[in-house]
Amino acid sequence: MGETEFVIVLTEHRFWGNVFQPYLIHKKDKFYSAEKVVKPFELKNAGMEVRPYEKELVEWIDKYSDERLVKRFSRAKNVAEFYANLEPVWFQKNISPFIERCMFEVARILMLSPVRLLNKEVKYANLYDEDEIEVPPWFARPVFYFERDSSETRYHLDIFLGEKEIPLLNRNIRIISGNPCMLVSRNQLIVFEKLDAKRLTPFFSKEFVSVPASMEEKYYAGFVRKTIRDFDVKAEGFQLLEGNVEKSAVLTLDNNLKLEPCFVLHFRYGDEEFLFNADREVAVQFQKTGNTFLFKKIKRDFEWEKTVFDHLSVIGLKEKDGYFSIKNIDLCERASALYFLVNWLNENKSWLEEKGILVEQGKLEKNYFTGEQRLEVKTNVSGDWFDVYAMVTFGEFSFPFVRLKSYILNDIREFELPNGEVAVIPEEWFARYKNLIPFAKSRGDKLQFDRHHYALLQQILPPGDDSILKRFQQLSGDVQNVTLPDGLNAQLRNYQKEGFRWMFGLQKNGFGGCLADDMGLGKTLQTLALLLKKKHPERPAFSSVNNTGKDGQLELFDRSVSGGKEQLASLIVLPTSLVHNWENEIKKFTPSLKVYKHVGQLRKTKGDLNRAASFFDIILTTYGTVRNDVETLAGFKFFYLILDESQYVKNPMSKTYKAVMKLQGEHRLALTGTPIENSLSDLWAQMNFLNKGILGNLASFQRYFITPIEKHNSKEQREKLQVLIRPFVLRRTKEEVAKDLPPLMEQVVICEMNENQQQTYETEKSIIRNSILEGIEEEGVKNSGMIILRGLTRLRQLANHPRLVEDIEEGESGKFEELFRMLENVVAEKHKVLVFSSFVKHLELMRGRIEKENWKYSMLTGQTKNRGEIIRQFQDDPENRIFLISLKAGGVGLNLTGADYVFIIDPWWNPASENQAVSRAHRIGQNKHVFVYRFITQNSIEEKIRQLQERKSSLADTFINSNNPLQKITREEIESLFT
Question: Three-state SS for 57?
Fold first, then answer.
């Protein structure tokens, strides 16, 4: 047997004529035996190496196999049924074009590969070398010749294969495929790239075709024009112009078919336009002037068009579905997308035109300004104010930026220019200036800002403009060299020195500030160091004054002791429970500062307070006293106004806030570990006290910061707010100064209810849940606060101990037993423990059990009178190991470093309260490890609250890095608490 060869044969299909088929043939003496037709799945088993072009040929031919045609074009069950029902007209219209496209691809591969093409008669099995059909490696080129005279137009067609002409007249020519045409002439396959065989067949039997003059206009406008467009044409008797024309690229702002804004790219050749992705490669224009015909043939310059496409890619435009746009613009709403594209043109139109790309607008509703726009900003420092001069330019029009103020504030993007064009205000201007404008006062053509906005102003100035920064660079300059005051009876740690200098710098520049260190890091000490540093040198030391009565209060005021130039006292407003603590800290650390307490029912009259303000360095008062005596206190101008635990003024609507805002002081400080507890409005109230107007009015702050941040988690607005407050808030956490603190260990103890307690709890929970949900349905969440709170409180009490509920006199508690098991270990191992509860009755129950055990203990609630003595007994008595403390009475102002265990026995949902409680033991001066245990009753409201707490305590972390209580609870969250 001879060698196997892969060939393509030209043969006849039994139904539809000429067809290419792949065969394996074997060489014998003088002929080849055709072994089989090759199918794609048989290539691997052909017994020969299969080349890529052979595989491709088989795959293309298989596309028009009988089986594949049935699947593609019919629902017939088999080939026989398919051909039995096949209509010739439908075949010619739908199937024949598909087969011809596949055969053209086969011919194209044959033109470039060594595979032989042989002619095979259906009735013969063998093949001979004489049957080979030559396949030239190029397409045939048709040339049409038109000759026009007064009577007729003649045209004939010449075919060239390379430079050789292929005769058509009276030749034995076999048409293989109609469109594009393939034919066999003299054992040579002639392939046309796009010529229809119908154009050739007339010239098989005649030399030319004649068209009478009476039909020529229609003939020229149709047949001749299309022929000129698609083929080479030689013309006599009419004009045919070919060659270069002026060309330009046009980028049009328009809408796509979905009415979405986009860019459309056209190529303009003279007065002919092509869409960038159009299939048309040539355009032919036909003109008749009198009896003269003129054709203009325009060919696209694809190389030039590619350079335009590359320019658009470089500048950031992406093509999709035939249109151009910016990446991810589909994420924008339609109006925003249109504005984005207009502003993109504002920035890039000049660059596009430099590259020869014209910019136009399509059928939009308005004529938008697409030229260059810019904003020039200059500043001037005038006393305590910054004057900002800003000029806007839209093309030929310039005007002050203040004219856009209402547009910026009301999110109006469109501004009509004098010539009727609509300018789109850049989104960047809104981002940079919208939150700034509410803080400004309009003064003619300028905007005027208070100096405490310098940090925000610095961000909007042009690069290189450091005028504002230089004006206030002393904030981080000279204060670094400030020394601690003489007479300070304490060794400040590094972070405390930093806080002292920070407050000194704020005072030097006339700013108020919030020292927001964690509990236990020494905010009181840092503040006293500042007040001692700022003590007027003429004031006598406290030791030189002997005209004081009991409790260090002034009895006889003598203004002469001030030595002439007076400095009024500093007023420190604080919770009642901290008065004693502050007084002791002043005596301990800064004994030279004279302190006066304006508290209690026996506080002095206005006249005495006036003399005290001149004589004493510090006046201590409480928030309640300020509310009651606000009219009297507002008549003084104090040196410093200091709010300790400043979260007491977090509610801008409260009497306390309104009262402290009436007080006068040259300088202001706020001290707190939790400047944000529930909402950013807490921060606004305290910052407005410190630097009035720094965050604008409450309504604008709600609009521009609270809503975007709390409801929409706006990163941009969060960063802007941080810029505004950063210079005026100093926050250090325990973790940041860990090297100065002992380790802290925390653990959650899960307690199980006993059987009766669980049954009682579930019964009550069901009743409470139904009652609350009915209330919410009728009144809504907002108006159901009291019933929700009562229900939550009752379940909390039941989770701790059933006897906390008034109508339950008997019962035991699983948590109670676990508490005493652990207390027994603490006492036996000679440790001290602080036990915190928000329910005094819970502490009373514990006291009864502790007394039965004969353990020594102390107890502190809101009713305790002798707080100082109670604290001393616990700290100094080594046998007193248990301190029962209510959260309300002991959350702040206590230094209990004698304890190294802390029990939080009924956690609530304000983490700040728990953190304050822990800080009673875990603070400066503690030299032992501190262990914190939080007792949680399993399957109770406490677990649900803790889960909710963990999800909603991140707000303050964002701005002050503080762990704070919950924000408002939604209905869904309320329902989840009772499931």
Answer: helix
Task: Calculate mean pLDDT across residues 562-579.
Answer: 74
∠ CA(51), CA(54), CA(56), 5° rounding?
110
Q: What are phi and psi of 86, to 5 degrees?
A: -75, 125
Count Cβ atoms below 10 Å from residue 318 Cβ, excluding itself.
Answer: 13
* Torsion angle defined by CA atoms of residues 772, 777, 781 and 782, in that order, rounded to the nearest 10 degrees: -120
Length of the chain: 979
Sort strands 833-837 and 729-730 into parallel, antiparallel or unpaired: unpaired
H or E element that contains 83: helix 79-84
pTM summary value = 0.52
- H or E, element range at 598: strand 595-598
With 0-12 / 13-18 / 19 or more C-beta atoms within 10 angstroms meaning exposed / middle / buried, residue 285 is middle
Bridge-based pairing of strands 441-443 and 618-622 is unpaired
Separation of alpha carbons 20 and 6, rounded Å: 13
Longest dimension (CA), the chain: 143
**Quick one: which of 219, 256, 509, 217 has its CA closest to 364?**
256
205 near 144, Cβ under 8 Å? no
Rounded CA-CA distance 103/63 in Å is 10
Q: How far apart are CA 189 and CA 132, in angstroms?
A: 10
Q: Per the structure block, which two tokens stand in for 444?
A: 């003619």
Tokens read off for 13: 């299909």
Helix axes 96-112, 52-62, angle to 10 degrees: 170
Q: What percentage of residues in the chain have a pLDDT greater than 70?
A: 88
CATH class of 478-739: alpha beta
Cβ–Cβ < 8 Å for 234, 270? no
Domain residue spans of the chain: 4-133, 141-235, 247-361, 373-449, 478-739, 744-977
Reply yes or no on whether the pLDDT at 681 is more than 60: yes
Instruction: Tally the C-alpha atoms within 13 A of residue 687's C-alpha that lie toward its C-beta.
Output: 27
The CATH architecture that domain 744-977 belongs to is 3-Layer(aba) Sandwich (3.40)
For the record, the structure tokens of 288 come out as 């008749």
Burial of 659 (0-12, 13-18, 19+ CB in 10 A): buried
Query: Is residue 711 packed enough to be buried (19+ CB in 10 Å), middle (13-18) or exposed (0-12)?
Result: exposed
Helix axis angle for 655-662 and 680-690, nearest 10°, is: 20
- Separation CA 430–CA 799 (nearest Å): 52
Q: What angle do CA 468, 474, 480 make, to 5 degrees?
A: 150
Q: Indicate whether 974 pLDDT > 90.
A: no
Q: Do domains 478-739 and 744-977 have the same CATH topology?
A: yes
User: How sure is the predictor about 792, in pLDDT bands with cuts at 50, 70 and 90?
Assistant: confident
Are the C-beta atoms of 860 and 884 separated by less than 8 Å? yes
- Which pLDDT score is estimated for 415? 94
- In angstroms, the CA 492 to CA 37 distance is 98
261-280 burial string, b = 16+ CB within 10 Å, else e?
bbbbbbbebeebebebeeee
Residue 326 β-bridge partners: 317
Confidence of residue 422 (pLDDT cuts 50, 70, 90): very high
Phi and psi at residue 863, to the nearest 5°? -90, -5
Rg (CA), the chain: 47
Separation between Cα atoms, residue 624 and residue 654, nearest integer Å: 12
